């Protein structure tokens, strides 16, 4: 136990040292290295009894199905206490991805009293003035497009799970620009009953800002879906186009290389022939440059 407490102290000192370094634009925080740890703030000012800690944990209640590497967790040793609210933030700087879209994902594990003790993830487009619960949100479904089922941060997850959400049109909807701060807030809350449970783990937290090009045009988001996804060959995109306006389709690889382009789509669906695509992840964009409507999506090819 002394070793774990010492390691937690060392990690806290390392974060304090890194706090003076510039924020990363993109990040993949594994907690096994200091890479981008300066983007993390465990808020002990507003929450002096904050239980979020970074390290290897030693909790008898966690079994082999939990995330087993170095993680951020609601206390590395003890069960989470009753009447707790603990918060950490991850901040990054916006690059040109705010004019296109971002990928946001993480691993997570949950062991709490169902519904009464829970976690939430919020996004602030204005450096903390406004907070949007991205899991519970119903106002911006075309901004926060879930590629996996939404994470359930209460109860028992059963294993180390993973979530993935695509975030698009931040400039058009929230007026975010290059150099602005993107802030995610992770909160854990428990009620007045002591349950002697382990809490929540996060690991491999990543934010990747995908850029097609530099354009500050404001677009109206359009809903679209793609199926089957993953696929080995053919996929169908369906999108909202009740007036049968003319849209353009572009398909890119993850490095922003244009692979396919199709103009003058006046229906509300289109089939992509991806037989020649190697395995991997791809981005599609539907756009009407005249009415300034746009939709983003992601699909996976598996052979």
Structure in words:
The chain has 303 residues and is mainly beta. It has 2 domains: 2-210, Jelly Rolls (Sandwich), CATH 2.60.120.200; 220-301, Immunoglobulins (Immunoglobulin-like, Sandwich), CATH 2.60.40. 7% of the residues lie in helices and 41% in strands. It contains 2 helices and 20 strands. The strands form 4 sheets. Strands 1, 3, 4, 6, 9, 10 and 12 form a 7-stranded antiparallel beta sheet that branches. A 5-stranded antiparallel beta sheet has the order 2-5-11-7-8, with no helix packed on it. A 5-stranded mixed beta sheet has the order 13-20-19-16-17, with no helix packed on it. Strand 19 and strand 20 form a beta hairpin. It starts with a helix and ends with a strand. The model is unreliable at 1-19 (pLDDT under 50).
CATH topology of the largest domain: Jelly Rolls
Beta-strand portion reads: 35-45%
**Which spans have pLDDT < 50 for at least 5 consecutive residues?**
1-19
Strands, total number: 20
CATH architecture name of the largest domain: Sandwich
Q: Helix segment count?
A: 2
Quaternary structure annotation = single chain
CATH class designation of the largest domain: Mainly Beta
- Coarse shape: elongated
Radius of gyration, taken over Cα atoms and rounded to an integer in Å: 21 Å
Mean pLDDT rating: 90
Count of discrete structural domains = 2
Helix content: under 10%
